[in-house]
Amino acid sequence: MPLSLSLIDNKEGESAGSSNNTTITTRKLTFEEYLIYGGSTDTRYELVGGDLIFMNVNTEKHGSITEFLSDEFRKQIQQKISSGLANR
User: Fold this and answer.
1) DSSP H helical segments within the chain, as ranges?
2) How confident is the model over 33-51, as pLDDT tens digits?
3) Disulfide engineering: 33 pairs with which of 11, 29, 53, 66, CB 3.0-4.6 Å?
């Protein structure tokens, strides 16, 4: 589920405690805003179309799949290098 950045705009000279003078709007984040926002929290998000998408914590299964893919890519690259195709 995407998250949107909420911007709170308090009208000048009025108290933030009243709901009549506070406007909350949501908008898409730019990449620059995402970089700043991402550095201010321990929760990991990815930016998709301007929306923040929560990234789940890696699981053991995820780690196994990642390691398998890494090994397979490494084998393929080594085969290409060995056969001389990587230099073409």
Assistant:
1) 31-38, 60-83
2) 888 876 666 778 888 898 8
3) 29
